[in-house]
Amino acid sequence: MATRIPATVITGFLGAGKTSLLRHMLETARGKRLAIVINEFGDLGIDREIVTGCGIEACREEDIVELANGCICCTVADDFLPTIQALIDRPDPPDHIVIETSGLALPKPLVKAFNWPEVRARVTVDGVIAVVDAAAFAAGRFADDPEAVERQRAADPSLDHDNPLEEVFEDQLNCADLVVLNKRDLLDDGTHADVAREIAASLRPGVKLVDSDHGRVPVEALLGIVAAAEDDLASRRSHHDAEDGAHDHDDFTSFSIDLPPVADTERLVQDLQRVVAAHDILRVKGFVDVPGRPRRQVVQGVGDRFQTYYDRAWRDGEPRRSALVVIGRRGLDRAAIERAIRDAAA
Hints:
- The strands form 2 sheets. A 7-stranded parallel β-sheet has the order 3-2-4-1-5-6-7, sandwiched between helices. A 5-stranded antiparallel β-sheet has the order 8-12-9-10-11, with helices on one face.
- It has 12 helices and 12 strands.
- Strand 6, helix 9 and strand 7 form a beta-alpha-beta unit.
- The relative contact order is 0.16.
- It is about 30% helix and about 25% strand.
- Mean pLDDT is about 85; it is low at about 155-160.
- It has 2 domains: about 5-245, P-loop containing nucleotide triphosphate hydrolases (Rossmann fold); about 250-345, Hypothetical Protein Yjia, Chain: A,domain 2 (2-Layer Sandwich), CATH 3.30.1220.10.
- With about 350 residues, it is an alpha/beta fold.
- The chain is globular and about 55 Å long.
């Protein structure tokens, strides 16, 4: 029987640093041929563009597949399984498959899909890696204030206090074989110790927790876990088990905004921080055309924390374009946000 191709699932909430981890994995693959499957919540394909624009020799465009027809935990049969089959049916199949899920994906339905007869004999889930934004966790972004919830519950016991952010985050941790506590550099030692202790207490026995800055984790720790996760589904609890993996993305919304060229991105970021604070936006990411610059500028924001950097050069004949994706909870005032961001870019 031929050796099965290992697959790694990278999960983690919006802006946790999954793409940074993936880029570092590609940079340190050491000759291992990786095939990358990227799924996003949003319609611009930002993460695939960031990976293909990274300039890494091992990063061939034909080895990077984008699934943009919705969250893959909800479109397994239609999108994900045919993609995996196409990769393993190649004349030169990859040594390892890495799947970067959207920030709102539940990993368990994806792992379960590897038991389908079409792929089970040829692929195994080497491990599920959950990437955690340590600073966001420390700020309480994934959990309700228990005292505030108790006050609301006392005032109106009929209220539904389910927090979709918290449920998605917990499902990602519950399915993990390795948890990467990313953005360690943003925490002082005491806060880091508290965060690490709280997360470690919630993990399944034997699951390791490692720190990282900018997704830099030795590739030996990421690949070769040999968890065979598809054979261990029962121990990976999910809030959605009773629903057979059903997952309502109507709790969240996203939209993209096309912008003119932006001469002053420092001012743009300052204005975006104000927009995020005013509208409770979870994530902003995209590319900006800076006049006179030969390279496109990446803009990424998690809450009010933003970073910008130049990646690849604009290609000959490629339209220079500025566009941002905005992701938040249901009920965002799209018209007001679009006006504010367009004013910021003017």
